[in-house]
Amino acid sequence: MKKKIAMYWGAGCGGCDVSLLGIHEKLLDVLEKADIVFWPCATDFKYEDLEKMEDGEIDIAFYNGAIRTEENEKIAKLLRKKSKILVAYGSCATEGCVIGLANLYDRDEIFNAVYLDNETTPNEKKIIPQGMEKEGIELPEFLPSLKTLEQVVKVDAAIPGCPPPSPVLEEALNALLEGRTEFGKEVALCDECPRKDTKPDKIEIERFYRWHEKEDDGSCFLAQGMICMGPATRAGCGGECTSAGIPCTGCMGPVPKVENQGIAMLSAIASIIEDMDEEKERAVMESIKDMVGTFYKFSTAKLLPYGRFKDES
Amino acid sequence: MAKRIGIFVCHCGINIAGVVDVERVAKEMASYPGVAFSTTYQYMCSEPGQNLIRQKIEEENLDAVVIAACSPSMHEETFRNVCGEYFNPHMCEMANIREQCSWVHDSEEATEKAFKVLKATVEKLRGNEDLEPIFVPVEKRCLVIGGGIAGIQAALDIADAGHEVILVEKEPSIGGRMAQLSETFPTLDCSQCILTPKMVAVARHPNIKLMAYSEVIDISGYVGNFNVKILKKPRYVDEDKCTVCGDCEDVCPAIVPNEFDMSKKARKAIYIPFPQAVPSTYTIDREACLGLAPLACAQCKEACEADAINYDMQPEIVEEKVGAIIVATGYDLYDKERLVEYGYGEDDDIITSLEFERMLSASGPTGGKIIKPSTGEEPKKVVFIQCAGSRDRKHMPYCSSICCMYTAKHAMLYKHAVHDGEAYIFYIDIRATGKDYEEFIARVMEEERINYIRGKVAKIYREGDKIVVWGVDTLTGKKVEIKADMVVLAMAVIGREETRDIAKLLKVAVGEGNFLKESHPKLKPVEALSRGIYFAGCAQGPKDIPATVAQASAAASKVLAMFSRDKLEKDPMVAVVDEEHCSGCGICISVCPYGAMQRQPNGKAKCIEALCEGCGTCAAACPSNNIEMKNYSDSQIKRMVEVVI
Predict the structure, then answer these.
(1) Closest-CA residue in chain A for B578?
(2) Statement to judge: residues B477 and B361 lie in one domain
(3) Which of A197, A201, A271 sits opposite B617 (nearest CB)?
């Protein structure tokens, strides 16, 4: 019997939906084994259709995007109820992704930046689109912080990546259709990086370069002094970015044994800074612009579900 | 797994018991999960204390023991030996309630912390596994890198003890800096006269394989089992055939400066750096030679009756297996061109101490005659400047250690040669800490009528045929201006640049001034952090000849101690890599201070157990969390942290 699958787009850029199409003709193989019963982005299903389904009627539901609004949260809970297996699809659903960096700010700060203090957004009436209703249509409430899927409902499996690279996705879909919820590689990216053989015996860093500050000589980025998250990032993409001349930023998240990708990479980086005095060491670390954005680009929301800690005193 | 743990709380006299409530600690810990027995004793490390442990292990049928006492660095070995009589010694752990509790906290705090430390140690112990010591075979041959006095002494000591030594020197001859010196302080022995017998001994020693004009290009392996690749540079002269008759040199048309004479004398393209060179043979300097081919110039080949010259000689790579390595790569002088205040060394009459040393030498460029380089006249007024580049934050911050002594010697020898000459020495302090050194300085000051001026020279410039030296005498507070014929700079001693290359091959650390970093500045001054590697001479830091020779012998004795056993035993507390999940990122290889983490052909990391000291740096740095320390697994550490907080 064909499986019933669903795909939902939460708070995200839409790249995840596109990535499902990105497996090209392989999608036909999937459709041979499964019927799509809900996919707002590609098919004409409404929320009512979803609500009408029996609990657990959907075999596999893919949720992409994070939980940013009441609507996201409501559908996440609904999908959970209606599905046997709920899959966090992509970095936003799994870890919060780039938009999770919003958890460094509170709701008011975000609204001020987006709607009021933003020079390119004329807003003379100073409208903040919250609590509005027109012709029976309500704008959903913006939640105090961004959450990952797992922070809202129980999740059975996760497909990492921003968006999940085709090989990762293919393996995941095959596994899920066979009823397995564990899949993916358990090693870090270096294992499959095309630059792997250029690694020197000893990586020593005297200073860090941002990507545009140094000409790439084609060798291991880290050895060149450019921060590459590869050593702390789960393999699977085949080194798409590093083969295209761009250091890994860590979208695949940490390897299964590691909880906190940023701290894993930071302690590795701190260890390979060349023997120098404290002052120089500090200068080197300060040469890393945007610590959070570098090491926690994808996992801020996972680690800060309630937003930034504020010292009330 | 430990099921019946015994806890032994030590009073350490009043060291612990005076602060920590040891009786309460012992009593309450007795009911902690997994603990079968608990007691206290006055001095656990004493013979009766050790016997108490033995007795209780038997009576209470204990299978693991925690000693709550001092730091494990003090007595872990003592207690593990006692416990080793009954069960695996790794089932004995120490909880440090002295340095970490009684010595640093108030009574109540200390007692509370003692509980925490003990609980954490019990939790760790419950996760411990039996470990067997690791044995490593030893190749009883030693590689000595550098053929100066340090390398020579170390090589002779080891060879005399009956072990084979491979002595590698990159120059055509061994001898190093000491061969360049004229006379040595404070006894004024002729440097070459006391050195050359040792050089000859090296050449003749059946246990020494001398590889001069060679360089170490690759080192792999680990303590007891190093694989070394040595590049033998072609001399284009057969060492065995050359009779050192000098006919080749006479006819050679290519003339270049002789490095041995600090380039103050000429030599031919085919040359022997100095007459007593070992090995005693000519060498063709490929760079200077007109062609190494009969068509270009073959005058030397035609002149050589011994038929020793071979233009087709090729570089050769020799592979050797050794068990230990001594690095004795020596020193260089700080570049005088970097001393802005002393005229960048552009003036012919401003020379370095080593250039002056060659000038003093009977075999040197002037035959021992002291001359003003620009004119060849006898200099009547010479200024010696100490600490040129040393003890100077703009250059090298450290003291070069030997300059006070040799400058005094220089001034003395100058006065002996030029009776009516005037010598001035600018100094910061006089450091004469060796045996008979202070007496030597006193003699120079009093008998030789040298003008010692305490102060730094601010500026040197040329005025006509004189060099004007400006300085301040800080004792009188007056400005000093001397119109000198010649200035000698006691340049800072720095480690050779090549030391860095060798250190990279050996994966040992190099500090300021290119000096090798020893394992412990006081207690392990000749050992590298990585086992099986030792240092001798100025490669480790500036030092004089007696200290160099002593350190060389010390390094040799370390090697001999190692060679006295067939196998090395080492602590099995090592890192373990989960190879299946290793991505080969190389972070652990980069951070391991012992060179124990190595890349395998499949790209994954592997811990060479013989080299691992169990520091855990790799485990902390691994971004995939794939490295664990034996008996310090993540689950153990997690449990320890849980019970502490």
Answers:
(1) A187
(2) yes
(3) A271
